[in-house]
Structures are given as structure tokens and as C-alpha cells.
Design goal:
single chain, 29% helix, 3-stranded antiparallel beta sheet, alpha+beta
Length: 76
């Protein structure tokens, strides 16, 4: 993901990486008022998977993301 690339998914919150690289993921906010600050993390095995996931689901086709679909289905 480049600095100039725009994230289109409205549920995207943050990219998470540990200092030693053993964990990387995408943090998604559940946009329902549950009385708590609840988020969900999609954990990915390596930086290539993270890059691909971001490009496919967060930057472009977010409506096809299984997590986006699950969250929005719950709200209907």
C-alpha cells in the first residue's frame, strides 16, 4: 500500500504490525454502538498477504470483502 493510495472501505481503521514482524493485520471497526469500542482484526500470515488483502479489499473491492459483508448484513 503506497502513501498516495486511498482506502475506500468505510470500516477500515488501521494497519497493525508488531515491531519484530511476527504479526500483521487490518483492524476494522464495527460501526454499531454497542457501548464499547469494539474492533475486529483480520490477521494475515505475511507482509505479501497483507499487501494483497489491502489492495483487493480495503483499497478497491471492499463490498466483496467477507468481513464487510458480514458486518453490514448484521446491521440490516
Amino acid at each position: 500500500m503506497s502513501e498516495s493510495t486511498a482506502i475506500k472501505c468505510p470500516l477500515f481503521r488501521n494497519v497493525i504490525r508488531t515491531n519484530k514482524g511476527q504479526f500483521q493485520g487490518v483492524e476494522c471497526i464495527q460501526d454499531q454502538n454497542l457501548g464499547f469500542d469494539v474492533t475486529h482484526i483480520v490477521r494475515l500470515r505475511n507482509k505479501e498477504d497483507l499487501r494483497d488483502y489491502l489492495e483487493i479489499f480495503c483499497e478497491d473491492l471492499y463490498e466483496t470483502c467477507p468481513y464487510y459483508q458480514a458486518f453490514t448484513r448484521e446491521w440490516k
